[in-house]
User: Fold these one by one.
Assistant:
Number 1:
Amino acid sequence: MKKELKPYVALCDAIGKLFYPNVEVVMHDLEAKKLVHIVNAFSKRRVGDAMLSELKDLNSIKENWVGPYDKTSSEGKRLKAVSIIVRDADEKPIGMICINYNTEPIETLFESLKGFLHVNDSAPKPSVLFSQSWREHTDETIEKYLSSKNIALSGLSSDDKKELVIFLESEGIFAIRNVVGYICSVLNVSKATIYNWLKAVRS
């Protein structure tokens, strides 16, 4: 291994350690055309193996890395890969670090989650199990008002709260049983205050 490549051994080891066991990290010596370091070798390659293919003129590549790109291992694993070109002080390519990520475990998990979360297969919500859905509706209506005013709930003044109560009345929220107590807790006001505001708007 060229001495200029030795500092990159720790980098390869760290990447392999972080993403174990799904990442293989391979470092090639371009001058020797051999594999000089490998971490998590799921491709069954070993140090000293020849490079798998001849490389084109790397001097024509301006970037120091290529990818990510898709590839398939000799064992048929689907991989997402990126190759890093290591250069010497004269910008001459002397090494290449290939990071191969086995995407099959993630793809399997994704397919399982996609099936589990498939919206079209979901049955309608049984109302008997969702007796508190009126709270969600109330919260959504309050959020609608806050968004229209571009203000946070914590920033409401007394006049703002009164205006919000009037808005909720116009949306039919107070036709919901027991909603007054809930709105009192949300706005931090008394029931008497709510009823006074409602009395004023209803009269």
Note: The radius of gyration is 32 Å.
Number 2:
Amino acid sequence: MFQEVLQTNLQKILNFFGYLMAYFRRNNPLQAFLNQIVGMIKDYLTMNRKLKMAKYRVNYQMYKLNQMEQLIAENNEHVFLRGNKLNLQR
């Protein structure tokens, strides 16, 4: 009886290691960790370029907004929208 229990427990342990090895073949955690580290390094190295692009986009949008406000102020018959009063009201 003791030998049967020992044999079944050993078989369960071997089955567990079989499932464990199959899982590691399908989902390699070391490879995922390595890919994550490489991605973080790439993000760190391209951070300055991304910052420059974001600043350019913000400056371009501000330029377009100022152009629109200037066109609205020029084409509007109301005097209070022209000049510095528009900037003060903003």
Note: Residues 48-90 form one domain.
Number 3:
Amino acid sequence: MARYIGPVCKLCRREGMKLYLKGERCYSEKCAYTRRPYPPGQHGQGRIKLSEYAVRLREKQKVRRIYGVLERQFSGYFQEANRRKGRTGEEMLALLERRLDNVVHRMGFGSSRAEARQLVRHGHVHVNGKRLDIPSYVVRAGDRIELTEGARKFKSVLASVGGADKRPVASWIDVDRAAFTGSVKGVPIREDLNEPEIREQLVVEYYSR
């Protein structure tokens, strides 16, 4: 599957907020958005009033980029959420949060979702005692997640665990970073999600137009 491989700092500047796509760098003074908090390009510092459609589009793009999924897959999450009984926007966020790569990131084993995704893809993550290399796998309540013995020695993993205190811990997850293990306590609700700047209703309006 194709994936964006360009400079991710430009994505934060385009969306007008930190998306935390580069892990520890995003928490430092080297963060590109901290130094240049305006869109990239020659006219980036100019002020442009966005149409209602553009506002909804930007919100959709922002959420998609936070979780690192492509348009077709993101649209699939919306369609699945739309078939559920709850509020569509909240159901969509719950599905995105329960992706295995996101859970590994939330547990502190990857400083970014991209780093966590790489751990999963390379077979360094076990779910309920079995290796699982599908980043989009949706975890369920009671699932136990752990890193392989080899992954526990990776410099990137140790650095991520060492800096995990900077990142909020998801209330719907239990984690023992010293043992490189964690478990899923339940399905997250909107109040459990550490993404206060997401306006999911705009995403619903975008796809419902």
Note: The longest strand covers residues 144-147.
